Amino acid sequence: MKCPLCQAPASQEDRPFCSKLCKDRDLLSWINEDYKIPVKDEEQGDKKDD
Ligand SMILES: [Zn+2]
Questions:
Q1: Local confidence band at 4 (pLDDT 50, 70, 90 cut-offs)
Q2: Which residue, 15, 18, 21, 34, could crosslink 8 as a Cys pair with Cβ 3.0–4.6 Å?
Q3: Distance, C-alpha 23 to centroid of its chain
């Protein structure tokens, strides 16, 4: 089994990653994906408060 991030052999402890570093990197990268979702889109266009 190889580390999906750097293709180094996976370690027993951090499978399928080669190290904690890659494990963390992967985790962070998908957390960041989550943050990409735009949330500030609903508050505008609702200014009919006359
Ligand atoms: Zn790696």
A1: very high
A2: 18
A3: 11
Please tell me the distance between residue 36's alpha carbon and the centre of ligand 1 in angstroms. 24
Say if residues 37 and 30 touch (Cβ distance below 8 Å). no
The answer to whether the CB of 10 falls within 8 A of the CB of 17 is yes
Paired tokens of 17: 């990653």
Residue 27: how many CA atoms within 13 Å on its side-chain side?
A: 9
State the distance from the centre of ligand 1 to the C-alpha of 5, rounded, in angstroms.
5
Residues bordering ligand 1, an ion, CB closer than 5 Å: 3, 5-6, 8, 18, 22
CA of 16 to the centre of ligand 1 (A): 9
